[in-house]
Amino acid sequence: xxxxxxxxxxxxxxxxxxxxxxxxxxxxxxxxxxxxxxxxxxxxxxxxxxxxxxxxxxxxxxxxxxxxxxxxxxxxxxxxxxxxxxxxxxxxxxxxxxxxxxxxxxxxxxxxxxxx
Amino acid sequence: xxxxxxxxxxxxxxxxxxxxxxxxxxxxxxxxxxxxxxxxxxxxxxxxxxxxxxxxxxxxxxxxxxxxxxxxxxxxxxxxxxxxxxxxxxxxxxxxxxxxxxxxxxxxxxxxxxxxxxxxxxxxxxxxxxxxxxxxxxxxxxxxxxxxxxxxxxxxxxxxxxxxxxxxxxxxxxxxxxxxxxxxxxxxxxxxxxxxxxxxxxxxxxxxxxxxxxxxxxxxxxxxxxxxxxxxxxxxxxxxxxxxxxxxxxxxxxxxxxxxxxxxxxxxxxxxxxxxxxxxxxxxxxxxxxxxxxxxxxxxxxxxxxxxxxxxxxxxxxxxxxxxxxxxxxxxxxxxxxxxxxxxxxxxxxxxxxxxxxxxxxxxxxxxxxxxxxxxxxxxxxxxxxxxxxxxxxxxxxxxxxxxxxxxxxxxxxxxxxxxxxxxxxxxxxxxxxxxxxxxxxxxxxxxxxxxxxxxxxxxxxxxxxxxxxxxxxxxxxxxxxxxxxxxxxxxxxxxxxxxxxxxxxxxxxxxxxxxxxxxxxxxxxxxxxxxxxxxxxxxxxxxxxxxxxxxxxxxxxxxxxxxxxxxxxxxxxxxxxxxxxxxxxxxxxxxxxxxxxxxxxxxx
Lengths: 116, 605
Known about the structure:
Order of helices and strands of chain A: HHHE
Mean pLDDT of chain B: 88
Number of strands of chain B: 3
Strand order of the largest sheet of chain B: 1-2
Number of helices of chain A: 3
Shape of chain B: globular
Number of domains of chain A: 1
Largest sheet of chain A: none
Radius of gyration of chain B: 23 Å
Radius of gyration of chain A: 19 Å
Helix content of chain B: over 70%
Strand content of chain B: under 5%
CATH architecture of chain A: Orthogonal Bundle
Order of helices and strands of chain B: HHEEHHHHHHHHHHHHHHEHHHHHHH
CATH topology of chain A: Helix Hairpins
Largest interface: A-B, 40 and 51 residues
Structural class of chain A: mainly alpha
Strand content of chain A: under 5%
Oligomer: heterodimer
Distance between the termini of chain B: 51 Å
CATH class of chain A: Mainly Alpha
Distance between the termini of chain A: 53 Å
Helix content of chain A: 55-70%
Number of helices of chain B: 23
């Protein structure tokens, strides 16, 4: 049995609010954190796909093999994604720090080294 | 003897780790030589894989996890000639970039070579894998290395902004790919591409269409289709020249490779009854990309940004090749990828030589200064003509195959779009050569209102000689571009490889059942190519006419060019969209994905 619409609604909300934040951001750190929120929506979506109501964690050392368990693959996917996201976020944050050093501002509206 | 398939990924990553350590203790030459040797080794391995995969698909299961009962349990590399060919192209261009940077950078840390090797390993993994999530992981690794390489010169203002625009846009794209893969997993319970394709079968509903939209749009963002292309021009304008070679030469084309692979293995059976709707959407996308890319290319004065927009217009031609969904058109796309990769890399190397010798890349400021660099000028002009579709080049053959396929489907007018895109991008480069190397045209103070790129110095001072290691790669790549177009065997091999690529049943059987099916057959008859040389020559002639009209327009049209103010106003509007502001880029991205998905849902749902 699946979990109902809760996780999907939450994933959609996180997606839209993250996207809105990226588009209208006035501070690069805020923008990068909104990217993190955007990616959280995909984690919630994945975990929602894998969840089964009334099922146990997928560890079978002490329970019979046929017990319903949640899907471990999506959990592995989410963990891998978190690692990837941390790497990319670290890179983005370093770039934001460098932008602040070179441009003196973190406001995307005021970055003017490239245009047209 | 270790198994060959994982080596193109494992060897560069291991060497990158070794070079990080060596870089702490030794000087630059000690890092550069092992890096070049590694890249050469990877090229050799990938060539062997191309030859072996032409005898049958190579399937390698990591950890020995072979499928049980036709259910894939592990992660596989599935190597066919096109995938191995893309990996070969990547490693070849990395070798060329390393050789070029031997003398190009006056001072570069060891981290440049480390990042390039990580980039190479990720690109090879991306081309060879048969698992959707593995594809995503290599996609992200490739992107992370690319962001770091793009913003390599952190002490200047423009590179860090360009790298940020690149990073934010592509991260949103990768997120879309992940969401699409999650939806496919939810529908089919599988991550292996062959398994997803088999489980999906012919069922098609809105979830499948949404999954297709997300995955394809995510990869099209990497491929710089319009309106996802804004990051490409910024990234190319600020990245070091050897890095630009890789971006335009292979990284962008890998996005299209992923779109094609996922379409044919996973979705081609489900969408087979709606092929015409899919064709319309992709053709609209391709036409838009060609025209916007070509127009923006022609109004640039910063030569690297000009080359970036010409990449966008050629990506449009490649999207047309994919979108026609026929073997002939896909062969044209493959030929275009190879030909364009060679020629564009040579052009970037030439622009690097110009920057190295003359210290600038702006067309107006360089007017007449290039007259000492005759060899570079010749290669530059040849490259420009190749992009316009000059006959012996691979780009001419690719354009021609796509046009022939379009004519075969009753869409002969598509030829004019391809010619316009080729003419605009070729003419821009010929105009640059004419102005910078031969001093034609008059000095225009501000050719384009409002465009501004801060050009930093990639090399520390102007030099007096262009070393052979810089001119060599450019000349060799142009020669390879000609060879790719001239060689009948290469065209036959491309056609046979494309048939293998599109053969979904053989792919699924080989991966899930271990069946050894060899569908690589060299065709008996080939499309007549050189009988149509006049088409290419016509495009080149148009390019020359356009160049002369532009450079001498004040003499030719005393009272102003007819319709000039309308064109100028339109082009300025287009340019204002390229604002350098990351929020604008993401907005266009969202609008583009919505229209793309909406069109697919309406036409196919």
